[in-house]
Design brief:
The chain is mainly α. The chain has one domain. It is built from 7 helices and no strands. Helix 1 crosses helix 5. It is elongated, with a radius of gyration of 18 Å. It comes from Paraburkholderia piptadeniae. It is found in: Cell membrane.
Length: about 140
């Protein structure tokens, strides 16, 4: 059970995470050919499947974050997705140029931090200001008897 202020903070966290993923997903759609080329350059197998899946995960995940739908499961899924994208997309250990490597290190650890935020959502849930919150039974004496 969360206090009203907690639900507001959880909503803000959801919206902040959603902004990142909605933006990324829309940019993948707008520059789809470039995204496919990037995946090819990283050696991602089955790019014809990976590209639309990644785009859908980011757009749909962002929408689910905004409305607060299935947040506990989404939090776990998005944490795993974010770590996977860190390993595939920010593989600093394969970079020889010092400036590019430093940039990739920052992006890698940023993704790890984002995954931590998703794990917190997995534990806290969506809060009251959400579809999940609206569907949850309200506590009270009658519900605990």
């Amino acid at each position: 059970m969360t206090r009203p202020v907690d639900s507001g903070v959880i909503l803000l966290a959801r919206l902040m995470l959603a902004a990142l993923f909605l933006w990324g997903g829309v940019m993948k759609l707008v520059g789809y050919a470039g995204f496919v080329g990037y995946l090819h350059s990283k050696g991602v197998p089955l790019v014809h499947i990976a590209a639309p899946v990644a785009t859908a995960v980011e757009v749909l995940g962002g929408i689910f974050l905004v409305v607060g739908f299935k947040i506990r499961a989404l939090g776990l899924f998005m944490a795993v997705y974010t770590i996977a994208t860190a390993i595939i997309g920010h593989d600093f250990w394969n970079i020889t140029d010092a400036a590019v490597q430093r940039d990739m290190v920052i992006h890698f650890w940023k993704n790890v931090g984002i995954a931590g935020g998703f794990l917190l959502l997995c534990v806290t849930g969506a809060g009251r200001i959400s579809i999940d919150g609206a569907r949850a039974p309200r506590g009270g004496l009658s519900s605990s008897l």
